[in-house]
Amino acid sequence: MFETESYVGSKEKNYPIVIKQLEALIEDETDTIANLSNASALLNQFLDKINWVGFYIWKEDELVLGPFQGLPACVRIKSGRGVCGTAFQDKETQVVPDVHAFPGHIACDAASQSEIVVPIFKDGEVYGVLDIDSPIKDRFDEVDKKYLEEFVRTLEKYI
């Protein structure tokens, strides 16, 4: 598990290991749901101080809940709504230190205090998003952003 207090060095060492583990888990599997499921389980195992990690997939003009680890979640999110919808609409990662200060934040879990959402692309279009919530403020930083984007780029090869 990553230790947030001793962080930068160990986090930068551990993320590449997690990305290699992701590739080993999914490289021979063609089923997208299976790959997203293992990806969420892997992140849940290795990231500390998180309370939800999972995917939303663009279907029928909405982001629809996909594989995840955590408490029950919002099932459908419109483009531009909340952190996930904003990441989808803007096609860029959202790092939110305090979700309560984010305009239009959707409170699926009252315990969530900070969030990071990374868009997933397939064939040049936004396919969905990786969403990770934390029960502490300021949980995610530029190191998380860099490596979670790399994690998603690896995942994109198998969806």
UniProtKB/TrEMBL annotation:
Domain GAF: 24-156
Superkingdom classification of source: Bacteria
SUPFAM superfamilies: GAF domain-like
Single GO MF descriptor: L-methionine-(R)-S-oxide reductase activity
Gene3D superfamilies the record matches: 3.30.450.40
GO cellular component term, pick one: cytosol
PROSITE patterns referenced in this protein's UniProt entry, alphabetically: UPF0067
Similarity section: Belongs to the free Met sulfoxide reductase family.
Protein name: GAF domain-containing protein
